[in-house]
Amino acid sequence: MKIVSKKVQKRAKIALTMKIEQKINEGLNAGPLHFMLKGMRDSLPIVMGYVPVAVAFAVLALQTGFTPLQTICLSLTSYSGSGQFLGVAMAGAGAGLITVAIGGFLISFRYFVMSTCVFARFKTLSTVKRLFLSHFVTDETFALFTTNDEKYVNVPYFLGLFLSSYLSWNFGTALGLFVSEFLPETVTLGLGIALYALFIAIILPGCRADVKVLYLVLCVAVSDSVLYLLFEKWFGGSATSWAIVITMVAGALIGALFIKTPEEKAEDLRS
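Below the sequence we write its predicted structure tokens.
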């Protein structure tokens, strides 16, 4: 009996030791550093996509007449690929500061909605921290964060994911400023297609999901071209950038009124 009792006690001690070790490992794997590293790992596909696009942006900005300091400051403070490309394009077309600001606001307005969705998942985060961290929300990081498991809704994971993406965008911008001096002219001129490729990449998923989006995009493109020619004829080249703003606002209103979101379509099917 004593031998059996000793064996039982030994097994119990081993089991207890294993449980303690498991708890310690779980604690290490659930610590802030673990979540931050996980966020950094998850950001790698985004980082790989951001760097070349940021390089193209920097080269295009320099070609348009922006100084290196202005270019890097734009990436640091704006951090919006579509907004930055649009701003550079409008500035190159002779648009004024107010026109560029309105265009940038309209094309980046979606980040208000995205930030609201992201920080609705943080229950205890202060308003000041929410305002600061909202600067790092982008389309790609938003999609990854909001579709991830609930256990990753914490600040360390957020910082690992969002800050890695932010730093890669600005690294790409700095790299573009450096390599622009060494790239052949044919390559730098070819980078101009990055602007069109970026916008096509943004609108293509929506066009595939709903043919109405495709029709709307085509109508906006034609309307913008017609308005551009009319404004140039009537008011001169300095007024042509307003064609972009007018067609952008009109397109957004028409889309909001007549194109349903996937959630609205699902609701219609249920009813």
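The chain has two domains: 32-193, 210-261.
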